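hey so i finally got around to running the thing on that chain from the lab meeting. sorry it took forever, my laptop kept dying and i had to restart like 3 times. anyway pasting the input first so we r on the same page abt which one it is
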Amino acid sequence: IYWGYYEHNDPQRRVHHTEIIGNLFERCPQNASSGTGYGIQLKSGNHDNLIEDNVLVDVGGTTRAGIIVYHNAPKPVGSDLAGTNIIRGNLVIRSRNEGINASAGALIENNIVIDAASIAIYLQPRSYGGATYYGSLQVRNNTVYQTTAGDGIRFTHENWSLADPARPTEFTGNLSIVTGGGDGLRPPSDSATVAQNATNGNDNGAAGTIAISATDVVSLTFGDQSFLYPTSGGPLVDAGVAPAASIDFNGISRDRNPDVG
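ok and heres what got predicted. didnt touch it at all, straight out
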C-alpha cells in the first residue's frame, strides 16, 4: 500500500482519517532482492491514519521499510503538528529493510517485529522542501526480536525536544531481544522521556534500561503459545512505566504496573 502523493504540498493530496486494519501482506515484491516495493507506506504530510492489527511477512524492497509513515506535519519542526498517525498491534516478520520507520507525529505501540534485515524499529529525521521533520514520537510497549545482525530499536541522534509540546517524544516500556550481534537500543537524546526499556544487548546509555537475558521470556520459538511472553516473576513483569499502551498485543487491558514489551 502506497498511501498519498510523493512529496506534494497540496493539502488536498494528503491522506487523513483512514484505517488500514486486519490485512495480510506477504512476499511483496515477489523478488526478494528488489530495491523498491512496499509493505505499508504513508507519504509525507499524511495524518490521523490508523495502521492496526496487520501481518506483514517478507515485504518491502531492500531499501524500503515494512511500515513507514514519514512525518505527519506540513509545517517545520517546532510548530504544531497535524494529528498523530497510529501504528498499533502489527506483526512484521522478515521485512527486507527496516521493520517500522517514522520521523514525526506518530504513536507506535504494541507492535512485534521479528528479523528485520536492517533495524527493527528506526526513528529518523525526514528532510523535505528545506525543512527537517522529527519529534512527537510516542514509542512504547513494542517487542522486537532480531536474530539477524540488525539493531533492535534505534533513534538517530537529534534533539527530539523540537516537537509539538503537547506530544513530547517518549520511549518507554519497549523490549528488544537481539541475538545476531546488533545493538538492542539506541535511545533519543535526554530531552525525550526514556524509561524502563529492556534489552539483552547494548543499550547505548538508555536511561533506566532493564538488562535481561533471552531466558527472561518464556519462548523464542515462533508459533509457541508463549512466544515472547515474559517469564513469570522475571524482570519484565510489572516493570513498565507510564505512559504505557492501555491494552497489550492481545487486546487485554494493562494494569497499573504494565509489563515491558
